[in-house]
Amino acid sequence: MRSGDIERALQSFSRLLAMAKRIPDSQGVCNAHMALALAYKKLNNEMNTEKHLRLSRERAVEFGLTRELAQAYYYTGEHFLSKRRPDIATPHLEKSFDLYNELGLHDEADKARTIAGVSKGQENIDKYIDLICRCGKVDSEAILVLCQWKNRRDVFFTEKKSYTEDSEELSDKHTDETTSSSLSIATITVAKSNIGD
Fold this sequence. Notes:
It comes from Dinoponera quadriceps. It is found in: Cytoplasm. 68% of the residues lie in helices and 8% in strands. By secondary structure, it is mainly α.
């Protein structure tokens, strides 16, 4: 879409908003704010995009329009995710998911859940990259296993649990077998993280 087309669309959406306020048409007000937000987003005008997304959410709450509120949360989350702000995006997307579920709109809820998962992953990717970097070049096989976990969810760790003779659990932490007392039995539980089995 060309810039001139978007400018004309902005004028039309502004007129629609004014008309919806005069009638009054609560759903029209929410939809006009959403249309304005999306048009400003095309122009990379963050300030007005965020302003109209906020106004769309506020009007939806004011008028009790749950579907429009869910949509406003979804597009707000999507906007912030595109701006590399998953810390802001994730809560909006999760709220959208909850609202769509309450309404029984499962296709929309699934879409919000998927994007929320992407956003949550973006929040944690820096920690993952840091972990890879800290591994260094010492054990290339271990790094390969860690990378395969990210892509395929292959198992890459074991968890050791220590128990006394009475089978009371002492620790869930990763322990060194050399420090285990003779009264404890070390058991190894392999974490199964294959999703979808």
